[in-house]
Amino acid sequence: MGKVLVLVLVVLLLSLSAVVIQPTFSSISTPDSWKAKAPMPTARGGLGLAVVNGKIFAIGGDAEKVSRGQHVSGGIVGTNEEYDPVTDTWTTKSPMPTPRTFFAITVYQNKIFCIGGSANNGRDNPPTGVNEVYNPATDSWETKAAMPTPRDALQANVLNGKIYCIGGTAINGATGVNEVYDPTSDTWTTKSPMPTVTDIYSPSAVFDDKIFIFCGFSYYTNEPVNFQKTQIYDPVTDNWSSGAPSPNGVYGQAVVATGQMATERIYVLSNGGNQIYDPENNTWTLGANIPTNGQDFGAAVVNDKLYVIGGRIWTYPLGSILDTIFDLAPSAANDEYTPAGYGTPDPTYLLEHTLPKISIESPLNQTYKNSSVPIVFTVDKNITSASYSLDSQQNITIVGNTTIANIPNGFHNLTIFANDTYGNVGSETANFTVEKPQTGIFGSIIIIAVIAVSVAIVCLIVGLLAYRRHRKTANLRYRGTAL
User: Fold this and answer.
1) What is the pTM of this model?
2) For residue 98, which of 57, 134, 138 has the smallest C-alpha distance?
């Protein structure tokens, strides 16, 4: 009887461990927390997420259902559904022409590129190199030059107008190949390969003009793989370097908070975990775990809030992850994450996106009695160049405070321009008046005229005095004669 009771308890505990608990969330966003949003209409994993004009597009994926290791229904789809975070609603769009899963997805000039992936059910089927581009503005697709090395389980990143497709699983297994697509010329080139090869969705993201790849794991390579390794690619030098390893192994997605509403960081999301990487200081911290503990989900960022959508949920009725008896269900979950400190812009973001503020100390709004007026100003950011324009004339480059000479009399406006190290241009205008003493021929004539008039007046006065004295003397003489 005791053995039967123990057996019943074991079975009960195993069955409970197979249940995925979906927590409930409040409607108010709090820092470092998750909130459930409207679920995706078509449940699927291995999908791609991309953001255009504040809308999230969930494309492709695998909707297969498995019970006790046996296929039940579903398969790879080309479904394209648009999510609006503002209204928390979904809209169906034109499907991807070649249904795929585990493909690379990225955005360039408001168009969504879906590259490579697996177009057949089952990981043992050959991957594809197909390159299809979706235009949300017209809800239409077009086909571009295929990726030279067909691969799935890869990711794509845009940098300096090029799309970098690194790693993944090729026909012969894991590869570190680094192929770069130029959307302008519709051509591909090959760059330096990833040093540590993985084949299962190594999360990657762009930060400070470099591509950060956080190692996943490999089914196919015989080489030992460091699942926590951080690999950094510099497209300018075509070289690789290493960053601090992640606290836990990673397999999933990586997204970047821009810094506009939250601290600029790379969020590495995998298997329920939320690891936060600071590339500036090369350090890691942990955030609140993803509530839906699935795999093969998509991730995106809108207004610095993170969205984890879809995925696949594996459960093992007999309790062993090594068992071939498992259940697999596609997920429609849509979890929104609010980073810690949300609502406070990152100082770096402010430096990169705000205009230089110029304070003019001279000229002031006053009248100057001199034709030479000094320019004295300060700027609140580091600048690469400065210039001024007097009365909207051509800009004059300056290296600091200076003086403008030979300014004519009258009202004037002076605008100072400053370019910061991020390419932002700030400006400030001051108004002033010049009333300098008259000089030159005209002034000399006036002075001479004044002197001449003065001399004439003096002569007239002297003459009058002399005439008066003469009359007086004459009168005395006349009177003397009469006597």
Assistant:
1) 0.76
2) 134
Instruction: Say yes or no to pLDDT of 248 above 60.
Output: yes
Cis-peptide into 363, omega within 30 deg: yes
| The Cα angle at residue 423 between residues 418 and 425, in degrees rounded to 5 | 35
Gap between the Cα atoms of 69 and 323, Å rounded: 9
CA–CA separation, 467 vs 444, rounded Å? 34
**Nearest to residue 133, comparing CAs of 110, 149, 155?**
110
Residues sharing a CB contact under 8 Å with residue 301, sequence separation 6 or more, in sequence order: 51, 255, 256, 257, 258, 307
Nearest to 296 by CA among 103, 56, 18: 103
431 closest CA partner among 412, 410, 406, 405: 412
**Beta strands across the sheet bearing 358-362:** 358-362, 373-379, 402-404
What is the tens place of the pLDDT at every residue in 172-221? Answer: 888 999 999 999 999 999 999 999 887 666 889 999 999 999 986 655 55
Measured CA to CA, the distance from residue 385 to residue 272 in angstroms comes to 48
3-state SS assignment for residue 450: helix
Looking at residue 9, its amino acid is L
pLDDT in tens, 112-131: 999 999 987 655 578 999 99
Cα distance between residue 158 and residue 145, in whole Å: 17
According to CATH, the topology of domain 356-434 is Immunoglobulin-like (2.60.40)
Which architecture characterizes domain 21-349 according to CATH? 6 Propeller (2.120)
**String of DSSP letters for 291-355:** SS--BS-EEEEETTEEEEE--EEEE-TTS-TT-S--EEEE---EEEEE-TTTTS--HHHHHHHSP
What's the whole-number mean pLDDT along residues 225-251?
A: 88
DSSP 223-263: S---TT-EEEEETTTTEEEEEPPPSS---SEEEE--SSSS-
**Where in the chain are the domains?**
21-349, 356-434
CA 466 distance to own-chain centroid: 95
Could you tell me if 246 and 230 are in contact, meaning their C-beta atoms sit under 8 angstroms apart?
yes
For 98-121, what is the HEC assignment?
CCCECCEEEEECCEEEEECCECCC
Q: What is the 3-state secondary structure (H, E, C) of 28-96?
A: CCCCCEEEECCCCCCCCECCEEEEECCEEEEECCECCEEECCEEEECCECCCEEEEECCCCEEEEECCC
DSSP-derived letter for residue 125 is S
SS3 breakdown of the chain: % helix, strand, coil, rounded to 5? Answer: 15, 40, 45
Can you name the residues that pair with 414 across neighbouring β-strands? 390, 430
